[in-house]
Amino acid sequence: MNLSRRRVFAASAALLAAPAIVRAQSIQLAIATGTTGGVYYPLGGGMANIFSRLIPGMSATVEVTGGSAANLQLLGADRVGMVLTQVDAAVDALSGKPPFRQKVPVRALMVLYTNRMQVVTVASTGIKTMADLKDKRVSTGAPGSATEIFAFRLIEAAGLDKDKDFRARERLSPAESTNAIKDGKLDAYFFVSGVPTSAVTDLAASPGQQIVLVDHADLVPRMVEKNGPVYFPEEIAAGTYPGQETANKQASVANILGVRADMPDELATQLVKAVWENRPELAQIHAEARNIRPELQKSSAAGVPWHPAAEAYWKAQGLSLA
Asked: pTM (2 decimals)?
């Protein structure tokens, strides 16, 4: 069951008005995450467990989705109460830029970790550069995912046409893409996530496969010129995946924890506090939680406005958001 604005307002009002002994009225929070082969899903599950255990009356659940774009559409439709999302997708949603048909009132609670674009293939395909993808069978990510948005922008920056330059273009999840490469039905795929990603690890650890991550950090300036300063170059260290012998120079984007602008302040504060104070527990679920750090809590990194309660919380922690 999802957390709509009406439920939030009604539940919050009931909690404030009721005697303490009966304040355990249930508040149901649906968290939109991503595909099961990425980082959003397990990390969101960990957050749901923390919220359900520590916030009185809270029952939090996770939703498996196509990723950031789908999450933000659900948030805009008031069908979920919280999303994990990439900043580039959140910025597009806030302004109502396609694929969003209307403006989404998304606000940031917290800047999470970095999402890294991974252009994944295996040595047997002969693909070593972005240019080598021409006339190959590729997947640009699940429909409604921020991977798809990011992949289209990267493909354009590489001087390729997403509709004309590939032998076939699929729209698969990372797990589906890995299986397709194993079966010889796909040559490469795009996926944006924290690292390591289970689907990529699965491919890299498969007998007879030598993983190749295609470098593309040199294309970041072209993407920034057209889409704004939401992308930046990073490296995936050698050895992140089995058999990965060299560092992968790639493009990255930040992730945020997002809610609607009209979420009640008290609830927003409880959510931020619960995540921030229980990062060690989340790190046991996925290593990327270790990268949720104080210095990342900057307005420029968040990309969209802070929820007022989150902004107040960070300032109370002594952080400068500028």
From this structure: 0.81
Q: In terms of domains, do 267 and 244 share one?
A: no
Contact 38, 89 (CB under 8 A): no
Asked if 220 and 51 touch (Cβ cutoff 8 Å), the reply is: no
Rounded CA separation 262/136 (Å): 46
Torsion angles phi and psi, residue 23, rounded to 5 = -80, 5
How many domains is the chain built from? 2
Q: Which of 235, 253, 271 is the last residue of a domain?
A: 253
Range of the structural domain that residue 165 is part of: 115-253
pLDDT in tens, 50-106: 999 999 999 999 999 988 999 999 999 999 999 999 999 999 999 999 889 999 999
R_g (Cα) of the chain, nearest Å: 20
Contact 54, 27 (CB under 8 A): no
